[in-house]
Amino acid sequence: MDTTAKILKTACGQLGIDSTDAEVIRQAENAIYRLPGAIVVRIARVGQHKVAAREIRVARWLAANGIPAVEALPLDQPVLVESRPVTFWKELPPHRPGTPVETATILHQLHHLPVPDDQGFGRLAPFVRLRERLNTATVLRPDDQEWLLGHLAGLENQWAQGLPEGLSETAVHGDLWSGNLAVSDDGVIRLLDLERFSVGRPEWDLVSTAIKYTSFEMISQADYRAFAETYGVDVTGWPGYPLLRDIRELRMMCYLAQLATEQPQFTSEAQLRVDCLRGRSGPRPWTWTASP
Q1: Bridge-partner residues for 80, per DSSP?
Q2: Sheet of 31-35: strands edge to edge?
């Protein structure tokens, strides 16, 4: 029995939930299991207890405000096992990822809610864990690692100087792209992956879809135009866009570097992303393979 399976069994035992016949859904940033009874269990990394607790608060706040999202089970959670937080959720109905228009639709709803100043959601932190990931990514060449740490420091300095005038602060999802939406057969659009939820500038949420067009051409110009028109703002024309774009690209690269350190089959993709950021692979748009 591997480590996460043992943690699953222990956490379920503490809550009186049967973990027999648990099925692995995903083993990546988090370990995710499906249990009989339409229950999904998420095991986060060590040190993520506060983040997991915030996810539960966010899910309940979204439900109270009429925003469809993944639903936390009515339990006293998260459960902490071997310093890893374990959370329990209702399994989603059959669904597909969101389209750009659907992404814009639910973002518009979310960003127009009153700012939740009493929920302890915290401030938007776009650099969280990046330095840690760079320092521990053994797949990175020393010169690349040094350059990336310098690039990170430069972006942090620009962020500290403040963003240009733009949209008013709101609740933000923090990592909203099509894969973090679940659209069921009845057309309901649900938010997933709430661990980066916070309060901050809504442009941060818009950039995730914008770079799919400007940086990677993963969506067409028509799809991006539909996204911007549905939301009501084209973030690519805002003076702060290049900074948020660069931060988001660095986040994507750092995630692959961490993944490749643990799963060597992703090493070539991680190196490709480094080469793009360093200007070795020509100007945008680049061709990056989607990560798990």
Answers
A1: 85
A2: 23-27, 31-35, 39-43, 84-90, 79-81
* Continuous segment of H or E residues that includes residue 106: helix 100-111
| pLDDT computed for residue 118 by the predictor | 79
Distance (Å, rounded) from C-alpha 29 to C-alpha 45? 7
What's the Cα-to-Cα distance from 26 to each of 38, 44, 45, 213, 283, rounded to whole Å? 16, 12, 14, 27, 34
Half-sphere exposure of 290 (CA within 13 A, CB side): 8
If phi over 0 gives left and psi between -120 and 50 gives alpha, with beta otherwise, what is residue 122? left
Q: What is the pLDDT of residue 1?
A: 58
Read off the amino acid at residue 157.
Answer: N
Q: Longest Cα pair distance anywhere in the chain, in angstroms?
A: 56
Q: For helices 241-262 and 203-214, what crossing angle results, to 10°?
A: 80
DSSP string, 1-19: --HHHHHHHHHHHHHT---
Length of the chain (residues): 292
Q: Which amino acid is at 247?
A: I
The pLDDT of residue 155:
98
Q: How far is CA 102 from CA 46, 107, 184, 206, in A?
A: 34, 9, 12, 13
What residue type is 164 in one-letter code?
P
| Of 98, 105, 116, nearest in space to 62 by CA | 116
Give the model confidence (pLDDT) of 45-99 as tens digits: 998 999 999 999 999 999 999 999 999 999 999 999 999 999 999 999 999 999 9
Q: DSSP state, 48?
A: -
Question: d(Cα 251, Cα 211) in Å, to the nearest integer?
Answer: 12
Residue 106 is encoded by which pair of tokens?
């639910």
pLDDT for 170: 96
- Name residues of the chain where pLDDT drops below 70: 1
Buried b (16+ CB within 10 A) or exposed e, 209-230: bbbbbbbbebbeeebbebbbeb
